[in-house]
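Quick log. Single chain, no ligands specified.
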Amino acid sequence: MSNYMLQSLMMSNPALRRWAFQRLVFLFPALCILAALALFGESTLFQMKAQRTTGEVVRVYEWENENPFLGGDKTYGPVFRYTWSDGKETRASAGHAFLIPFKVGSKHTILFDPSVKTDVRTTLFEQLWAVPVTILVLGLVTWILALPIWLWLIRPRIAREREKRLFCLPRSQPPDESQTTR
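-> predicted structure:
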């Protein structure tokens, strides 16, 4: 079906347009909440299988901050030296989403995956939980905003159902006077 045909079908059929919009209103919040739950699960699984150790900062990369949500002009990415699960010293970066510059030579608690040398994370909130929490809050806020819109959209259907119940009920018969007691 071509895009033109789909557009003309949607424009000519208000019921179809309303049905599609009802579904789309909740699609974004639902996807945000599902993505947040997946990221919470990934972070939790990483922490369950990761080993905790102390890493020494041997180098700090500096980038221009391109993320408007972080604030600040620069972001930093520390490179840690630590002893890996096989007993050998190795180096790995924890990424570049930190607003705090790490000092070379400082020691920090880090988590590393014993099966992959390059997967290192700090125990800071911003690296383990900030993204899932942000996406979850975005999903919940948009869901709260979508709820009144959805209720407004289904208003005609609720009215039809209420009308159907009112007019389809059997009419009550007046009570038989011989059966009533005084």
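The chain has a mean pLDDT of 81.
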